[in-house]
Amino acid sequence: MVDTADVKDRGSAVDQVVDALRRLMRERNLGLGDALPSEAELASMFNASRNTVREAIRILKAYGIVESRQKVGAVITDRRQQALMDLFSFAIDISAESFLDIQGFRRLIEVNLSDLLFETADETAIDRLRSINDAMKAASTLAEAAALDFRFHAALIGFAGNQTLSQVYGILQPLLQRLMEAGKRSREAVDSAYNDHRAIIEALEQRDRIAYAYHMNRHLQAGLQFIAPKAV
């Protein structure tokens, strides 16, 4: 139980509950995606009314620290970073130069994950990657295919078991997905990505480091042909 007795009598009861919620997150080491206790549980923990707890959570929502999810309740998020990336992805010019910069960043991460993935990518993980890849090929729109392409790579990062990398890719999702949309301006591009993904999956299954690096590099480079070079 979080002890709020040492919270000095300053500000409103809502402010005290907001402070207590911040300490609760810190003491329980709660991170992005973790759910807070229910309003009733928080009211009992903090010796506060449910209306006070509800107002405190509303403040956290306004600051982009939590969001409400159906059947889950208040979940820790960080919409401030997401809003920043939404704006950044909207403003950035997807040119050949920016494509190479972003894909170079991804190459440093995804190509060099092979050894870790060889340890962690079991049959269930492989089946999950195949399922996402098949859904991408069957997507009815190019935008949907781009979203599934991102999901494929996000799943790959997730299977590596590095939470920080998963969070970074989550934050970068608007930018990366926009890049993937720019690289999928035809059904031919989707089919090419599908085949690249298949080759990456096969390399993972065979624990073939050279094949994995080759096909991942090829895949990350492939979309460049669909992006016009910057006018001089």
How is the secondary structure organized here?
Layout: H1 13-27, H2 39-46, H3 50-62, E1 66-69, E2 73-76, H4 79-91, H5 96-110, H6 114-120, H7 123-137, H8 142-159, H9 163-171, H10 173-182, H11 187-206, H12 209-222
Antiparallel strand pairs: 1-2
Helix pairs in contact: 1-3, 2-3, 4-10, 5-12, 7-8, 7-11, 8-10, 8-11, 11-12
Give a quick set of tags describing it.
232 residues; 68% helix; 12 helices; elongated; single chain; disordered C terminus; mainly alpha; two-stranded antiparallel ribbon; Arc Repressor Mutant, subunit A; Four Helix Bundle (Hemerythrin (Met), subunit A)
Structural description of this entry:
The structure is a single chain. The chain folds into two domains: 13-77, Orthogonal Bundle (Arc Repressor Mutant, subunit A), CATH 1.10.10.10; 84-224, Four Helix Bundle (Hemerythrin (Met), subunit A), CATH 1.20.120.530. It has helices at residues 13-27, 39-46, 50-62, 79-91, 96-110, 114-120, 123-137, 142-159, 163-171, 173-182, 187-206, 209-222; strands at 66-69, 73-76. Helix 2 packs across helix 3 and helix 4 packs parallel to helix 10. It has twelve helices and two strands, in the order αααββααααααααα. A two-stranded antiparallel sheet has the order 1-2. With 232 residues, the protein is mostly helical. 68% of the residues lie in helices and 3% in strands. The protein is elongated, with a radius of gyration of 22 Å. Residues 11-79 form the HTH gntR-type domain.
